[in-house]
Amino acid sequence: MKLRKVTAAAAVALVLSLTATACGGDDGDSDSTDSGSSGGGKIKVGIKYDQPGLGLKEPDGSFSGFDVDVATYVAKELGYKPDQIEFVETKSADRENALARGDVKFIAATYSITDERKAKVDFGGPYLLAHQDLLVKADSDITEATDLNGKNLCSVTGSTSAQNVKDDFAPKANLKTVSGYSECISALQNGTVDALTTDDSILAGFAAQSQYKGKFKLAGLKLSNENYGIGVKKGDTATVDKINKALEKMVSSGAWETAVKDNFGPANYKNEPAPKIGVIVK
Length: 282
Fold this sequence. Notes:
- The structure is a single chain.
- The chain is of the alpha/beta class and about 280 residues long.
- Helix content is about 35%, strand content about 25%.
- Strands 1, 5, 6, 7, 8, 9, 10, 11 and 12 form a 9-stranded mixed beta sheet that branches. Strands 2-3-4 form a 3-stranded antiparallel beta sheet.
- The longest helix is centred in the N-terminal third of the chain and has 17 residues, at about 10-25.
- About 40% of the residues are buried.
C-alpha cells in the first residue's frame, strides 16, 4: 500500500482548517439564544401557559397576555423579531432551574422579585407592581384573609402566595398546592376549595374569562406587594442591563400602558403605575 506524501504547505493548511473548525463549533450561546435578528438566530423565553391576561397559550398555538407582550418587546430590543422567539412553559417551581440549566435566556412569568430568589437568579425590572388577593365564588362570605382559617385554600407549587397567607393571616387554613392555576380554578368551581390565592393581576385574568363570567369575584385585599421582574441566569449582568433599558423604553414610548389596557382592561383591573427600574416596593 502506497502512502501519499504531504507537503509542508499542505500540512499547514490542514492544521489551520482543523483549528478553524474547532473554534467555530463553540461559538453558539449556551443560554438559549443565538445571534439575534442580524444572524437569524432564535431566543428562548420562559412564560406561563395557563394565566389568562398574562401568559396564555391559545388553542391555535399562539400566545397572549401582558407578560408575553413585555417579553416580546424586550426580545425585540435585544435584536429578535417575533418569529425568532420561542416561548417555553416555565412553571413556578422550575423557574430557577430553567435559568440555571440554560433552558431559556430570560423569564417573564409573574416572577416576583424576592431576596430568596435573588440569591439564585438576577432580575431586570420590576415591570409591574401587583398585590396578593383572594379569588372566591361570587356568593362567598369570605371577605378577609383571616376568614380562611379552617377552610380550604388553593395555590400553585413554588408560589409565595399561599405561604404568605398561612404565615401572616390564616395559620389554620388547609393548603392545597397544585401544578397550575387552572387546576385551582377547577377546584374552586366544584367546591373542593374555598379560595384561590395569588396576585390580583392573575386572578383578574381568570375572572374575566367568558366561561367564568359572574361566577367568581376578587376579595379586594392587598395582602402583599409583588414586584414582577424578568429573571435572568445568575451573573448575566449584561443581559440585565439590556433588559432594563428595554423596559424603560417600553414605558416612555407608551407601549407599556397600551399592553396594560389591552390585557387587563376587560377585567377592569386597577393597576399600579409603571414601577421605576430597580425600585422594589416592600
